[in-house]
Write a structure and sequence with these properties.
Glycosyl transferase group 1, 15 helices, Glyco_trans_1, 2 domains, single chain, transferase, Rossmann fold, glycosyltransferase activity, about 15% strand, about 350 residues, alpha/beta, seven-stranded parallel beta sheet
Length: about 350
C-alpha cells in the first residue's frame, strides 16, 4: 500500500470548527491506519495532539509557504490528505476537504487578500486534486457553482458530534453567572454571515422577558445593538471552555443559531446531541443537518426569530418534543463514520 500523508498544518492553528474536524478525523485515521504519516511545520500549537498523532516536523517555513513550497517535496512518492480548506497546488495526488464556498458566496465576510487567495486556491485544488471532500450537499453544489469543482470529484461526508459528548460538563459557569432563571443560549460573532445581529434585533423586539438570554463568545452583544441599553435579561458570559459550553447547552431551554451561510453547522448539531431544543435559520446547509428536529425562522426577519423564541419558551410540549427528537437526529452523525468515509474515499482516489 503506498504511503498516505496527512497535511497536519491544522496543528499550528487555533481550534475552530474546521480544525475540530481535522483533529477528530486525524485521531481516527491514526487508529485505523497506523502507518499514516502526519506532517507539520515547526510552529506547532497543539503539542499534545501532535504527540498523539506522532506528527513529524518538517521544513524550515511555516503557514502557506510551508504548505505550497515544502510539503510537496516531503510527500513525494505518496498520496496526501489535506483536511482544512487548503493544500499544495503542485500536489496532484491529493484529496482535499473544502468545507464551503464562503469566500465566493459572501466575500464581504473576509479581507480582500484572504478571499482573493482562497478563490485561487479553491479553483486550483478543484482542478488539480484527485478528490474533493465537503461537509454537505449544499456545499457540494456551491463548490460546483463557484469553484467549478467537477461533480465526479466530489464526495459529501457529514461531520460528527462525539467530541462534546466526551467532554465532562462544567456547571460552575451557571453559578458564576447567576443563571438561576430559564435561559436561551446563543454564540456571538462579528462575521456577517453568522448573522448574530439578528439575535440582538429579536431580543430588542422581545424586551424584558421572564427568561434570560445567555450570549457566549468574545463579542459583546452591544456591538450589534441599535440602542445604548439592552434588556437586563441579556447576559454576556464571554469565552467558554468545551466543558462550560456543554453545561450551557444542557441547561438551556433553547439554542439559537441564526447563520445566513454555513457549510455544515456544528453548533446546532452539538446542541441537538445534548438534548437542547434548537431554533435555527432556514438557510444553507442547516435544514440538511437539523432535519425535522429544529424550529426554523427566516434569518432576514428578526421579528420571526422573536416569535419563534416566544413560541418555544411558552410551549412546554414543543420543548419536550425537540429535546427528544434532537438526539435522534444527531445520532445520524458520527466522527467514526466520518473518518471511515474519509479514509475509504482517500484510499480509492489516491490509489496508483
Amino acid at each position: 500500500m503506498p504511503p498516505l500523508f496527512v497535511n497536519a498544518r491544522f496543528l499550528t492553528q487555533p481550534m475552530t470548527g474546521v480544525q475540530r474536524y481535522a483533529a477528530e478525523v486525524a485521531r481516527r485515521l491514526k487508529r485505523a491506519r497506523p502507518a499514516t504519516r502526519f506532517l507539520v511545520p515547526r510552529n506547532v500549537l497543539h503539542t499534545g495532539l501532535a504527540d498523539e498523532l506522532g506528527a513529524e516536523v518538517t521544513g524550515r517555513l511555516t503557514g502557506h509557504a510551508w504548505e505550497q513550497l515544502e510539503l510537496p517535496f516531503y510527500t513525494r512518492g505518496g498520496g496526501l490528505l489535506s483536511l482544512c480548506n487548503t493544500g499544495p497546488l503542485l500536489k496532484r495526488r491529493q484529496v482535499v476537504t473544502l468545507h464551503d464556498a464562503a469566500a465566493f458566496a459572501i466575500p464581504e465576510a473576509y479581507a480582500l487578500a484572504f478571499r482573493s487567495w482562497y478563490k485561487v486556491l479553491f479553483v486550483g485544488l478543484g482542478r488539480a486534486a484527485r478528490g474533493v471532500l465537503t461537509d454537505s450537499h449544499f456545499s457540494a453544489a456551491e463548490l460546483q457553482h463557484y469553484a467549478h469543482v467537477p461533480k465526479h470529484k466530489l464526495r459529501v461526508v457529514y461531520l460528527g458530534k462525539e467530541h462534546l459528548l466526551q467532554t465532562p460538563p462544567d456547571p460552575a459557569v451557571l453559578t458564576r453567572h447567576h443563571l438561576t432563571r430559564p435561559f436561551v443560549l446563543a454564540v456571538s460573532s462579528l462575521s456577517p454571515h453568522k448573522n448574530f445581529g439578528a439575535v440582538v434585533r429579536a431580543l430588542e423586539h422581545l424586551g424584558e422577558t421572564p427568561f434570560d438570554t445567555v450570549i457566549a463568545g468574545g463579542i459583546s452583544p452591544r456591538v450589534h445593538a441599535r440602542t445604548a441599553q439592552l434588556p437586563a435579561s441579556i447576559k454576556h458570559v464571554g469565552y467558554v471552555s468545551d466543558g462550560e459550553l456543554r453545561a450551557l447547552y444542557e441547561g438551556a431551554s433553547a439554542f439559537i443559531h441564526p447563520a445566513l451561510y454555513e457549510g455544515f453547522g456544528l453548533p446546532p448539531l452539538e446542541a441537538m446531541a445534548l438534548g437542547c431544543p434548537v431554533i435555527v435559520s432556514k438557510a444553507a446547509s442547516l435544514p440538511e443537518v437539523c432535519g425535522d428536529a429544529a424550529l426554523y425562522f427566516d434569518p432576514h426577519d428578526p421579528s420571526d426569530l422573536a416569535d419563534k423564541i416566544r413560541q418555544l419558551m411558552q410551549d412546554a410540549p414543543l420543548q419536550a418534543r425537540l429535546r427528544h427528537e434532537g438526539p435522534v437526529q444527531a445520532a445520524r452523525f458520527s466522527w467514526e463514520r466520518c473518518a471511515d468515509e474519509v479514509l475509504s474515499f482517500a484510499e480509492s482516489a489516491l490509489a496508483p
